[in-house]
Amino acid sequence: MSWDWSVILKYLPRLLEGTWLTLELVAISGLIGIALAVPLALMRVSNSPWVRAFPFAYIFFFRGTPLLVQIFLIYYGASQFEAVKQSVFWEVLKQPYWCAIIAFSMNTAAYSAELIRGAIQAIPKGEIEAAEALGMSKPTQIRRIVLPRAFGIVLPAYGNELILMLKGSSLASTITLLDLTGMARTIIARTYTPLEIFLAAGVIYLLISGVFIGCFRLLEKRLNRYQHYRHQVPVELTKIDPRLQD
Amino acid sequence: MNLRKLIVTLSLVAGTALAASAAQAEKIRIATEGAYAPFNMIDANGDLKGFDVDIAHALCAQMKADCELVAQDWDGIIPGLLTRKYDAIVASMSITEERLRVVDFTERYYSNVLSFAAARDSDFKTDKDSLKGKVIGAQRATIAGLYLEDNLADTVEVKLYDTQDNAYLDLAAGRLDGLLSDKFPAYDWLRSEEGQSFEFKGADIDIDDKIGIAVRKGDPLKDKFNAAIKAIVDNGTYAKINAEYFPFSIY
After folding, report:
1. Mean pLDDT of chain B
2. Which of A42, A50, A184, B212 is an S-S bond match for B105, by CB 3.0 to 4.6 Å?
3. How many contacts, defined by CB atoms under 8 Å, are there between A and B?
4. CA distance B174 to chain A (A)
């Protein structure tokens, strides 16, 4: 087998077209996913077993089944029912684009909710008790203490989840979408150069992941800046009495 | 004495190894797709069957070869041949210029035409003007898919599927206005329960499409297959298999 660089160059514009769709899918599903995940996580840490039941079942289902199966259920499954086809939802479910967004959003919401739940439970008890001692109501506590603290804790793990979703988005190609993977496979169907084109696609995925990782590093630095804070001792103080330091 | 024993043992071992490799060389591994009824599909027991499979078995019987059939996804089927996962592809594969650059083909074992299919009650015409804006499906990496991209990419919205079955599902679901596909497998689907409200539309598209068996470039297997194809066509085995699937000759 001979190696052909020119084929990568020739089809690069189409690969970039696919890259754009991949980014679109990840961005939109990511936003919807996190919007769903926060309330799910809050319900998940509730004291009432009734409130906990729904997010438990939801997370159990979406974490326990493969993403590919979920996509197929939504795309091919929903269209089997005449009732769905007659309903207003069909306008949305008819389009593979929205089917992919629904599947990705619901899937990432389940994983993210579980991550956020872990983060909420990892908040030091003392901080919540301090908020209570100050007389904060439950909603205020959540808004001012629980969520900001949880976001700081969850960030590294969430970056991981986003990268997993970027790679998972390649499954969109199974429902006729021409995302980066779909585009690569369509090009290969014509050129029979799987090594070259998949290498190019792989490098593009790697670059996107790299940008994600960089962004999350910056966010982490900002949200968890208290961890890097250096206590500065005033000069005059050190001169007076060593026991007064700190 | 000891040395002689050693030599005898060594030659015995070498002999067995040689015999074993010779036996392996007789074995031909053949790939097919398994999602292209009635040519190749997987039945309820998980076994491969269909026209391609029957032809492959008939050819192997003719060549007196020991054959093993494996199922392989369509868009990885040529790369798999090149990386020696198997030695031949009997999967209703069209002989094209592009494929000939990377593999060799035998003579045809049947000929294919393309046809549009759409709902019986739809006003579906196949001239370029009527097709404008329609959503047309085809399987990725097939002649039909390439035909749509080459000739109608600006006219219709092309949707490409991993398998022919998924394209049928979406036609039945109403996501597609029509389908462009190889005629014979579509003929089989139109007779099924899911396909009965659909029919062929317009004239057949003859694209001079010959279906052959793909082997690696320069593989002597090609000549063996060619001789076997000629033999089963001449001795009536081919006609018998043909009649099981279609009431007309597809050779």
Report:
1. 88
2. B212
3. 53
4. 8
